[in-house]
């Protein structure tokens, strides 16, 4: 049996973190979550298979975190899906190196299909 894929959620909205975490666990993923974007950059081992980052987090811009993840050898190949309530940020998310973008409020089916797509590639 293969180990479940691990996904890290970083969002400062506890409602979103709880809902997404529940959905992902129901789908069989192992989930790590944080409401502090800086925690993402503190990971040294046990990296997730995919990052789900909010663009606007208190004190932290998810795009800066994404840029840093994409610079590091240890995390540059891990897919990053960025989420935001603002559609205007889709382009800047991609410029920061995000592999995908999802607008809030998002449809859980759409999120799950994007995650499956990036984990399959």
UniProtKB/TrEMBL annotation:
SMART domains: REC. InterPro entries: Bact_response_regulator, CheY-like_superfamily, Sig_transdc_resp-reg_receiver. Pfam families: Response_reg. Residues 6-119 form the Response regulatory domain. SUPFAM superfamilies: CheY-like. The keyword Ribonucleoprotein does not apply. Gene3D superfamilies: 3.40.50.2300. Keywords: Phosphoprotein. GO terms for biological process: phosphorelay signal transduction system. The modification 4-aspartylphosphate is found at residue 54. PANTHER family: RESPONSE REGULATORY DOMAIN-CONTAINING PROTEIN, STRESS RESPONSE REGULATOR PROTEIN 1. This is Response regulator receiver domain-containing protein. It comes from Daejeonella lutea.
